[in-house]
User: What shape does this take?
Amino acid sequence: MSVNFDCMNFVVARLQNISTITWYHMFASYDYPPKSVDDLVQTFGLLPSLRELNLALNKLSDDPVTDLSLEPISNFHVFNLEWLHTRRPRPHMLLQISKLTTRSPDIERFSFVIPDATPIEEDFGPSVTLGEILVALDQVPSGLHLRSLETRGVIVNATDLKQNIRHFRSLVDIRIRYDSSPSAAANIGEVLSVLSMNKVHLKKIHIDKLHHPGVFAYLSSHPGIEDLSLKPGHHMDDSPEILERFLTSVLPAQATSLKRLRLGANFGTPELAIHGFTAS
Assistant: This one.
């Protein structure tokens, strides 16, 4: 199959105006000769107009040597990664992902999504953390201007966010779902508290844990949210008190700015009588 890869490399090298690439890559595949893959990534790195990379990775090899090298590519504005394998990324692969952001000083949107995050199988290994994904950002001399952060199946806690807050002062869009930590509800509440303390005003929020006080404190004190999705994923989210707090504190604060609202539809939430409700 190296002939096919060489042909692809030939074609890609001539796409000088291409701005977006979406690539589904299987690590362990006889169809993907390592040398041809490396050559293709090198070609990606030479494309002058490339600004967005959507990368889906699957079939982790037993040989770390075959891990994909992302070193030749840089200067993205958007980097979206889907991890499709049933085992967690190796530390070397996570470091590669993290370093790619350091080579993209103008990056604005970043997502790390594990689509099959619920449930995470036992053989997946420990959950991926935001700290692992951002570990290389210590090397960036000045703050990035990230405007959008999406995670799914990743543990996102306030400690990791605090350590990297200089990169998130321009954040307007946050989507955090399926944090597998037992403290996931506290995590999202504390993350929103950190953003509040640093005067980060979000316009788009998608979360699936609601009952921590930090969630309602943020939603009721930072008007200007335009897109709000609250999809209860915890049994403590399903209560009359939660609905009442939304109606009496959040809705009045956001009524004039909201353009899109979604409530419920993650799990059974009978107390949210308007669960599954979407308006735009």
Remarks:
- The chain has a mean pLDDT of 87.
- Residues 27 and 67 are 7 Å apart (CA to CA).
